[in-house]
Design a protein that fits this description.
By secondary structure, the chain is an alpha+beta fold. The protein folds into two domains: 90 residues; 136 residues, 2-Layer Sandwich (TATA-Binding Protein). 47% of the residues lie in helices and 16% in strands. Strands 1, 2, 3, 4, 5 and 6 form a six-stranded antiparallel sheet that branches. Helix 1 packs antiparallel against helix 2. The longest helix has 32 residues.
């Protein structure tokens, strides 16, 4: 018998290897959607309904196992449990962040516009959305009411710039935001763009229309998700980012 040799913990090893396998599954999920091996909605569902409970289970199991090892005075698996705990927390953080709503309630809508009475219409991107589950038909007063309650700050941009100058600046903002621009029409003062979210690669379509306004121009934006009942606030966030960049 070797004095001082610590007996390996079967529990610690089990939790550790399960956490490593789960961590690899998360990485595969992320890489897979980035390489278009599966649809963004499938990756999102995995993250929302699998990785969150899995990460929580790993984190809790790691903490319980650490307590068990300390009580048994057998710290041979202590480092592995710290690694497992880090994996669990790393998996939980983005899930928790996606569930935290800093600005309040997020309604189950995916079509956000600065003009709910006469939403800007899409022309160039109509054919791109042939297979999209979400249509471009605006939902009317019900959707408008939900948007107003959740995002009262989403209103038209009133500018002192002429419609021509406002169009040029708006187009520059769209390009800077890395939208894939379509149907740019300097005469009609309008353009459309496709935006792709960074994490799950969801595709949202935008349209910007500039009209003449007393003393300058008015800029209206509409952003619509191709898939998903709720956009988790992404379209409103995009319009705010556009507004802030335009007003600089």
């Amino acid at each position: 018998m070797i004095i001082g040799k610590k007996k390996k913990s079967l529990i610690a090893n089990t939790v550790f290897y399960l956490s490593v396998l789960f961590g690899l599954a998360i990485i595969v999920n992320i890489v897979g959607v980035m390489l278009d091996y599966w649809q963004p909605i499938d990756s999102f569902r995995f993250s929302r309904f699998v990785s969150y409970p899995g990460g929580l289970l790993i984190a809790v199991s790691s903490i319980v196992t650490i307590i068990y090892l300390v009580k048994k005075k057998n710290l041979s698996g202590f480092r592995k449990m710290l690694i497992s705990l880090l994996i669990g927390v790393a998996v939980l953080i983005p899930n928790i962040n996606s569930m935290v709503v800093p600005d309040g309630y997020i309604p189950p809508i995916h079509d956000i516009t600065t003009d709910t009475n006469n939403p800007p219409q899409f022309i160039a991107l109509l054919t791109n959305r042939d297979d999209a589950p979400n249509t471009l038909e605006y939902g009317g007063p019900e959707i408008a009411a939900q948007q107003l309650a959740a995002y009262p700050d989403i209103v038209p941009i009133i500018s002192s710039l002429s419609p021509d100058d406002a169009y040029v600046k708006a187009l520059e903002v769209g390009i800077a935001m890395k939208w894939e621009i379509s149907g740019a029409d300097a005469t009609a003062h309008r353009f459309e763009g496709t935006a792709t979210t960074a994490w799950f690669k969801f595709i949202d379509d935008t349209v910007v229309v500039i009209s003449e306004n007393e003393g300058g121009s008015r800029v209206d934006i509409r952003s619509v998700s191709r898939i998903g009942r709720s956009d988790l606030g992404e379209n409103a966030k995009r319009i705010r980012a556009f507004r802030d960049a335009f007003n600089k």
